[in-house]
UniProtKB/TrEMBL annotation:
Lineage of origin: Eukaryota, Metazoa, Cnidaria, Anthozoa, Hexacorallia
Span list, region Disordered: 110-130
Pfam families xrefs: Peptidase_A17
PANTHER family xref list: RETROTRANSPOSON (PTHR22955), REVERSE TRANSCRIPTASE_RETROTRANSPOSON-DERIVED PROTEIN RNASE H-LIKE DOMAIN-CONTAINING PROTEIN (PTHR22955:SF69)
Identification of the protein by name: Peptidase aspartic putative domain-containing protein
InterPro entries listed in its UniProt record: Peptidase_aspartic_dom_sf (IPR021109), Retrotrans_Pao (IPR008042)
Length: 503
């Protein structure tokens, strides 16, 4: 059965390849005969459809192959088909360029910004320069340009070259595939006029045309980065757009300039404007990811790292007029001689409340201080009449703040209890029936026992013989559903330790 399916899939792929070959030859004839623009576009569309069909048939066929060496051979075959398709696509796009505007306006490069940790953690790649994508500002086309000193040649998107009305010369480019195999494709080489905004000097960049340089580059908010580097008065932008022009090391002079550095961020004044690269500072990352209301929570490996981090945070927040009230740590961060700087050294109580959770810095554990007036619930012989109503139960339940889920098993009971009150049909200030009052009293009595429970802040111990295992459990009923996560780890002594993560 498998052999028959493999044979059928291979036949279907061969048929798809034949269709692609015929479409390629037909497109080549259209180009040779210099047919009208619309005919060439239709031929290119048919070629694209044929290639997409071949990709689908090849994927189906390759999934049926069990032999690894045969799989590699077939992947190489598909790579050749792809390069043949790209060469024909490039030829057609170059031909279509001739129908566009003939005027040549220089690409204008805005002041730029990049970084080295990807689109979420930083602002680009090492030696990169993000400039706004092709657009019209005061009738001047603008580009998203990448300075990459790891590239041996400079390249430009075919669409960008067409938008500028550039006339290139025919050239051949050799592509080295995985395994060292070389493939030559025909394309164009352009002379691209480039300038920086507010600078009249023009630069000529020799670039090879290709269909695509990169996918969409994520936009980055650069105001705080510019402020850290003292570049508030500079025009530094990087919106969301693909890369239009990549300038490699073949234009080394474009990568030079005066530099300045703050932490892990570096700014360089290149001929095309400011380039910013590097990763965000640890302080910025903590403020972005670990700030909750008026609390800043973080964890580092050493006292020295903690001293540096708290100092950087003081500096960043102080620049905005925010003074840190004090720092709490399970290690002493500074000596008593400089205590007036604002650090909070515990001399009495060893507990600090963060986000409704109590942290004992000596044992390095989280715990709770449940505040329920149990005598008020039990003792009804007081001077004034006290009723247990829906309003008071909601008020008590709302006082428990549990962002991690330590007391999730109790909070869900309180929520179910509130649902039952509405099902009974009580108004806000109606006194609860005796049996319902007993349930609420029992719940809060049990919750008081949470004062005796602690959870380790450090989930994974260092230098353990095995990687920890994540265990997740969930359950559901007609009233509610819940899930909780634990981490299980083998210790140096050969035993196992289980720590609660969240619920």
């Amino acid at each position: 059965m498998v052999e028959d399916a493999l044979k059928t899939a291979k036949t279907e792929r061969r048929t798809a390849k034949g269709t692609l070959t015929r479409c390629g030859k037909f497109l080549a004839k259209l180009l040779e005969a210099k047919r009208p623009e619309q005919e060439v576009r239709d031929g290119l569309s048919k070629l694209q459809l044929a290639f997409d069909n071949l990709v689908a048939k090849h994927d189906h066929y390759s999934r049926l192959i069990e032999d690894d060496s045969e799989f590699e051979v077939q992947e190489g075959w598909m790579a050749d088909c792809q390069e043949d398709f790209m060469s024909k696509e490039i030829g057609a796009k170059i031909y279509l360029d001739s129908f566009l505007s003939k005027g040549k306006a220089p690409l204008q490069a805005h002041d730029t910004s990049t970084a080295s940790k990807g689109k979420n953690n930083g602002v680009g790649g090492p030696g990169s320069s993000g400039i706004p994508s092709i657009q019209i500002e005061d009738d001047v086309p603008c580009s998203n340009t990448l300075l990459d000193w790891g590239a041996q040649i400079s390249i430009i998107r075919d669409e960008t070259a067409a938008a500028l009305g550039l006339k290139g010369n025919d050239t051949e480019v050799t592509i080295i595939k995985v395994g060292g195999e070389e493939k030559t494709i025909k394309t164009k080489v352009y002379k691209v006029p480039v300038s920086a905004p507010d600078i009249t000097k023009m630069f000529s960049i020799k670039a090879i045309g290709i269909p695509c340089i990169s996918e969409e580059v994520a936009a980055v908010q650069l105001k705080p980065i510019a402020k850290l580097l003292g570049l508030e008065n500079e025009r530094i932008r990087r919106p969301n757009s693909p890369v239009d022009l990549l300038i490699g090391i073949d234009h080394a002079q474009m990568h030079t300039g005066q530099t300045r550095q703050t932490g892990q961020l570096v700014a360089r004044k290149t001929p095309l404007g400011q380039v910013v690269f590097g990763g965000p500072s640890e302080a910025a990352e903590v403020l972005t990811k670990n700030s909750y209301m008026d609390d800043i929570c973080g964890s580092v490996d050493t006292v020295m790292q903690a001293q540096k981090l708290t100092g950087d945070l003081d500096k960043v927040l102080g620049g905005g007029g925010f003074a840190v009230k004090g720092w709490t740590s399970n290690k002493v961060l500074i000596n008593t001689e400089v205590q007036e700087r604002g650090f909070k050294i515990f001399q009495g109580e060893v507990q600090e409340k963060m986000l409704g959770v109590v942290w004992n810095y000596v044992t390095d554990e989280f715990s709770f201080k449940v505040k329920v007036d149990l005598p008020l619930l039990k003792n009804r012989s007081v001077d004034r009449e006290i009723k247990m109503t829906t309003r008071t139960r909601l008020s008590e339940a709302a006082r428990f703040y549990d962002p991690i889920g330590f007391e999730a098993a109790f909070i869900i009971r309180a929520r179910i209890g509130l649902q039952e009150l509405w099902q009974i049909g009580l108004n806000w200030d109606d006194e609860l029936p005796c049996e319902v009052q007993q349930k609420w009293t029992q719940l809060f009595e049990e919750m008081k026992e949470l004062d005796q429970i602690g959870f380790k802040r450090c989930l994974v111990s260092p230098k353990t013989p095995e990687f920890p295992a994540l265990c997740v459990f969930s359950d559901a009923s007609q009233e509610a559903f819940e899930a909780c996560a634990y981490i299980r780890q083998k210790t140096k002594q050969g035993t196992y330790e289980v720590n609660f993560i969240a619920a």
